[in-house]
């Protein structure tokens, strides 16, 4: 037995050794036979790779018995080749799509490349990004690689602590449409009420999708409501899930922050642990596959409350929430024939969070000393369940390509409280409560047809389709003790401190239907000139119909220079949450608690005030740009844009029952006092905005010594203006009360004047290094007295070093915000959150150290 085992071992070692160590040489060319400089050549299933030189040539020592090489470069379709004997010649085609692939967002033509697109599209290879940077979730990954993308970590913002709001080109989180594999992703059920970004907006929670399951992210930076429907005013983010087979990838990551502003002596906090695994199985010879991902992420609290403050401490606990995130995602395809296949994809995400609320000090009349003799710091907990499932079939119907699918998604958000009390229950109060929550569900049935006419001039692509969407929204109450007043101490503030529960009168169940139909066409008039147009009709059961269009063109002036432009109209339907949300909550103004009523759009109070029902936002947008590619080593894109949004849905300022002199407001005062609240606010189509901006992306690849240096300069310059504030009914003429300077400042701060990213990525042999500088521009917010708080521009520095430990293992270590830069500090009594700064785009946690171990087999 031992002899047989020894013989088998020797055979395996001999067979393995036979293929290892052989020198593979070759050249990578483009379709015209020109060398592709800086192309990546990787031996499949290993970390063994190299890059082509200025002549497109490479040399690689293989590590496997039967090596297969994966060759890729920006702007080209990846190609996998078998490395036989002799020199290898690889000719890369420009990146295009096919029936079996997900189309490039922004075009329904199945032979359109990214560089051919008349609209600006960013393609982000997330597998590359996750291996080289310290960020772990999708929002933060995009925040530091895509200048037009903005996302804030928030604290002291209730639900927004648990769901990071994100946006494109400085517009609202709900003005960007998110697709997964080209299908509409459902939104979060949360309405953002506090924080510096997304106030009054719903949005899509990108962090429910694990980065480990994503192959690439396509960002269409252009209005696309005529192509894809509601929410696409600012653009579209298309997440393309992995479809790789016979490749196992797994990684373990850990990082922590340098705890500069803690009250104790702890040196590090905010520990972030992530572990994930992805594997794909090939089925048969027709490209069928199943690709699955499991991901777990645990992020601990940061503590940033120890900031010098002459007016006293606003909060004892201030920092990022603690969040645990577990996800399982699947992407699959099952061939029925050479012309037809079924696809199924989707996943589930379970998230639990703990977020700090404002401190109730020992002498606070909302405290019960018998329970908390030193006061208490309430913890707002979240229990979020997000699921999605898409099933469809793609087939040939004569000369047409047909795509029929059904898409279901659900997001459920439940609030809880711990380390708190209901003061009206006195010493008998429980210290933990179920505070209720909300749920949003969506079901979409869609049918799409595309056809390419190769003989019409230089090619005509026609697409048409229809979509039926049903949405459900529900708000459910918490337990009675989380919101009610009890006789033990009836004069105290009712409900659970930190976050009062939703009341039975807040409960609602609502639904609406939407039908949409579209047609679009792309005509290559000549090999150099493209014309495109789209038309879309939609009808909503709750506010009616809308018709939108888009016109685009692209012209190749030379082989190296292309001009492009678009003009479109757009719309965004107010979300069911914006229409139906209702709550009574506690806000803190200069450290003092105030009860606030957020009344739903069709409530008795809004009807008395004459506030009309919400209607759709409408937009006009234009984009003019140029792209230039000099050889395969240098590319440049410049895109200027203009976006005008009319009747933008916002959360109004808070109306007070009485002014600072205790005089009752003649319009709304009596109604508010009858409701036992001091202030009220509403959702309304209150304002028009205009955005003017420029996106710049410059990529360069060069050989440096025996390695490859990739350099990227990417920047967004943006200016948002508020054109007017429109009041109505009994509030006519009270513009500053309706949507005042402070609320306007929050909208403008969501559209910072610029963000600039400069990245150097160098790889030589087994070593790699990434150095990145990100400049976040200044923003100005207003405190509660409308005094300006100017957050100065800041530059963060990220550094990552990586090393291939073996053919299959790679280690990366580094630091984000290496120089430990913080935003401008302010008196916590002045900020929205009660900390030393409001949530601004650079973050407020300081230096982050991390290490990553990645395996690939």
TrEMBL record:
Highest taxon of source: Bacteria
Domain TonB-dependent receptor-like beta-barrel: 399-818
InterPro entries: Beta-barrel_TonB (IPR000531), Beta-barrel_TonB_sf (IPR036942), CarboxyPept-like_regulatory (IPR008969), Plug_dom (IPR012910), Plug_dom_sf (IPR037066), TonB-dep_rcpt-like (IPR039426)
Any Pfam family: CarbopepD_reg_2
A cellular component annotation (GO) from this entry: cell outer membrane
Keywords from the named record: Cell outer membrane, Membrane, Receptor, Signal, TonB box, Transmembrane, Transmembrane beta strand, Transport
Signal peptide segment: 1-19
Annotated localization: Cell outer membrane
UniProt topology in membrane: Multi-pass membrane protein
Domain TonB-dependent receptor plug intervals: 114-236
Chief location of this protein within or outside the cell: membrane
Family: Belongs to the TonB-dependent receptor family.
Name under which the protein is recorded: TonB-dependent receptor
């Amino acid at each position: 037995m031992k002899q047989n085992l020894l013989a088998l071992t020797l055979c395996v070692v001999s067979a393995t050794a036979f293929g290892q160590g052989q020198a593979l040489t070759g050249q990578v060319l483009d379709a015209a036979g020109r060398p592709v400089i800086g192309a990546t050549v990787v031996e499949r299933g290993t970390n063994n790779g190299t890059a082509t030189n200025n002549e497109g040539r490479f040399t690689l020592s293989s590590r496997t018995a039967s090596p297969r090489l994966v060759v890729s470069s920006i702007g080209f379709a990846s190609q996998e080749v078998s490395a036989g004997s002799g020199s290898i010649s690889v000719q890369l085609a420009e990146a295009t799509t096919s029936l079996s692939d997900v189309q490039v967002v922004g075009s329904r033509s199945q032979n359109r490349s990214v560089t051919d697109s008349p609209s600006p599209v960013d393609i982000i290879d997330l597998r590359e990004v996750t291996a080289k940077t310290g960020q772990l979730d999708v929002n933060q990954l995009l925040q530091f690689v895509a200048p037009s993308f903005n996302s804030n970590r928030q604290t002291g913002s209730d639900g927004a602590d648990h769901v990071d709001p994100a946006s494109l080109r400085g517009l609202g989180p709900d003005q960007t449409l998110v697709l997964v594999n080209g299908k509409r992703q459902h939104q979060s059920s949360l309405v953002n009420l506090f924080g510096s970004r997304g106030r009054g907006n719903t949005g899509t929670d990108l962090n429910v999708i694990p980065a480990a399951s994503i192959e690439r992210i396509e960002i269409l930076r252009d209005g696309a409501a005529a192509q894809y429907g509601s929410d696409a005013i600012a653009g579209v983010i298309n997440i393309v899930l992995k479809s790789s087979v016979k490749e196992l990838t797994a990684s373990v990551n850990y990082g922590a922050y340098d705890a500069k502003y803690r009250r104790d002596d702890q040196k590090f906090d905010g520990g972030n642990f992530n572990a994930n695994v992805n594997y794909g199985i090939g089925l048969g010879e027709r490209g069928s596959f199943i690709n699955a991902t499991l991901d777990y992420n645990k992020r601990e609290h940061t503590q940033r409350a120890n900031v010098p403050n002459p007016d006293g401490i606003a909060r004892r606990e201030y920092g990022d929430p603690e969040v645990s995130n577990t996800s399982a995602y699947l992407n699959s395809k099952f061939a029925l024939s050479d012309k037809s296949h079924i696809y199924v994809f989707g996943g589930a995400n379970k998230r639990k969070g703990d977020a700090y609320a404002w401190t109730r000090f020992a002498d606070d009349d909302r405290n019960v000393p018998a329970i908390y003799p030193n006061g208490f710091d309430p913890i707002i907990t979240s229990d979020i369940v997000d699921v999605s499932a898409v099933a469809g079939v793609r087939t040939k119907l004569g000369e047409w390509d047909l795509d029929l699918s059904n898409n279901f998604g659900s997001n459920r958000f439940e609030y809880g409280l711990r380390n708190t009390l209901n003061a009206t229950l006195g010493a008998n109060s429980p210290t933990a409560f179920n505070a209720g929550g909300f749920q949003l569900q969506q079901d979409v049935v869609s049918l799409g047809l595309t056809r390419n006419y190769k003989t019409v001039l230089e090619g005509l692509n026609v697409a048409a389709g229809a979509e039926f969407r049903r949405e459900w929204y529900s708000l459910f109450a918490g337990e009675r003790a989380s919101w009610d007043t009890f006789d033990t101490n009836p004069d105290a503030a009712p409900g659970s401190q930190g976050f009062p529960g939703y009341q039975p009168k807040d409960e609602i169940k609502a639904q609406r239907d939407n039908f949409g139909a579209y047609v679009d066409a792309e005509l290559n008039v000549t090999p150099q000139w493209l014309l495109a147009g789209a038309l879309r009709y939609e009808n909503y059961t709750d506010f009616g119909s809308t018709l939108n269009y888009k016109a685009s063109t692209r012209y190749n002036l030379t082989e190296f220079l292309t001009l492009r432009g678009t003009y479109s109209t757009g719309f965004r339907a107010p979300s069911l949450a914006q229409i139906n949300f209702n709550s009574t909550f506690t806000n803190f103004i200069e450290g003092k608690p105030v009860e606030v009523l957020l009344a739903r759009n069709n409530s008795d109070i809004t009807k008395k005030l004459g506030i009309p029902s919400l209607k759709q936002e409408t937009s006009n947008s234009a984009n003019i740009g140029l792209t230039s590619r000099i050889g395969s080593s240098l590319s440049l894109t410049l895109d200027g844009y203009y976006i005008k949004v009319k009747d933008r849905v916002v959360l109004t300022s808070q109306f007070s029952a009485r002014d600072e002199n205790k005089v009752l407001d003649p319009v709304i005062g009596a109604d508010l006092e009858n409701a036992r609240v001091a202030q009220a606010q509403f959702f309304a189509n209150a304002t028009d905005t205009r955005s003017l901006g420029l996106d710049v992306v410059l990529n360069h690849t060069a050989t440096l010594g025996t390695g490859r240096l990739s350099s990227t300069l990417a920047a967004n310059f943006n200016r948002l203006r508020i054109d007017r504030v429109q009041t109505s009914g009994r509030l006519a003429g009270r513009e500053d009360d309706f949507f005042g300077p402070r609320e306007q400042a929050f909208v403008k701060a969501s559209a910072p004047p610029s963000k600039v990213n400069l990245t150097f990525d160098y790889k030589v042999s087994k070593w790699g290094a990434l150095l990145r500088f990100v400049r976040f521009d200044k923003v100005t917010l207003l405190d509660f007295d409308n005094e300006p708080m100017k957050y100065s521009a800041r530059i963060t520095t990220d550094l990552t070093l990586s090393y291939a430990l073996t053919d299959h293992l790679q280690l990366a270590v580094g630091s984000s915000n290496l120089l430990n830069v913080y935003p401008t500090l302010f008196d916590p009594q002045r900020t929205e959150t009660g900390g030393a700064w409001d949530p601004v785009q650079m973050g407020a946690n300081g230096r982050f150290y991390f290490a990553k171990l990645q395996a690939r087999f």
